[in-house]
Amino acid sequence: MKILLMLPSLFLLSGCVDLGDVGIHPEEETYYVNQGKNQVIDCLHYAASKANLSLEYDDTLPENIDKYNLMNTENTTVAWVEISNFNGRQTSVEFYYAPHAPDIHRSVTTIAERCT
User: Fold this and answer.
1) What are the extents of the domains in the chain?
2) Mean per-residue pLDDT for 49-71?
3) Angle at 98 between CA 94 and CA 78, to 5 degrees
């Protein structure tokens, strides 16, 4: 009975998050860059624009991780990007994108290779 009472609020809450094209079980690619975090962010902005995508700031997560959305020309999120300091000398860049999306995989690889 309690479950039936909770269902309406669960349905309302489930509509509050826009996953874009990423989905709930994304692929993950991690890259380590031998540059400072701000330099990496600048490079990712430039590399995304060269791939006809844009990198938009979303939020700061715990442990000082900056979360960005990689957006296509239709303003749809095609990947999530998490950027953080790693090991004091490197920056970690994690891309999360839809599985079975070869065009996004190619774009992520191209963007990452420009900045590593």
Assistant:
1) 19-115
2) 96
3) 75
What is the C-alpha to C-alpha distance for residues 98 and 78, in angstroms, rounded to an integer? 7
In this prediction the pTM is 0.80
| Sheet strand arrangement including 54-61 | 27-33, 90-97, 77-86, 65-71, 54-61
CATH class (in words) of the domain with range 19-115 = alpha beta
Kindly list the distances between the CA atom of residue 77 and the CA atoms of 17, 21, 69, 72, 80, in Å, as whole numbers in the listed order: 12, 6, 6, 7, 7
**Residue 81: closest CA among 34, 39, 26:** 26
pLDDT band at 5 (very low <50, low <70, confident <90, very high): low
| Exposure string over 15-41, b if 16+ CB within 10 A, otherwise e | eeeeebbbeeebbebebebeeebeebb
Q: What's the rounded mean pLDDT across residues 68-80?
A: 95
Given a contact cutoff of 8 angstroms between Cβ atoms, the answer to whether 89 and 109 are in contact is no
Contact 82, 94 (CB under 8 A): yes
